[in-house]
Amino acid sequence: MSSGLPANLQRIVDLFASAPRELRLQALLDFSRRVPDPPRHLIDSDIFENVPECQTPFALATEIGEDGVVRIHFDAPAEAPTVRGFAGILREGLEGATAEEILQIPLDFYMPMGLVELVTPLRIRGMEAILARLKNRLREAA
Predict the structure, then answer these.
(1) Closest to 123 (Cα-Cα) out of 64, 26, 55, 38
(2) What is the CATH class of 7-141?
(3) Is residue 120 within 8 Å of 127, Cβ to Cβ?
(4) Where exactly are the structural domains of the chain?
(5) pLDDT digits over 94-124, tens only?
(6) Cβ atoms within 10 A of the Cβ of 34, count?
(7) What is the pTM of this model?
(8) CA dist 53 to 38, 103, 123, Å?
């Protein structure tokens, strides 16, 4: 984690940063398709927290395993590919990370990715809010 980002997330940031603009949009949409549905045991629980700063209905849930690894679950409509794309980036980028590693991630980690050229400032604020809410959940759990 030399850059302050978990290795998986750094790999994704580098991928976007090196891609032409039109491929970054395609990659964002690809990440949106990778977000799995929430596990059945969580769907009817109260573990999901809404992220009201997002323009579309969006919720997240976190679980910390006995191994200290954080598992993140998102609930976002398929009709919101931008927000789902960011959720997919976080899910894949933070896979295997601990709470301590996630808490070290700057809220604007996405800046080198060129996402601000692809999505509106309102969507960017939603993306930051997802990570901020995730970090708050982890602080509360600690």
Answers:
(1) 55
(2) alpha beta
(3) no
(4) 7-141
(5) 999 999 999 999 999 999 999 999 888 888 8
(6) 13
(7) 0.91
(8) 21, 20, 9
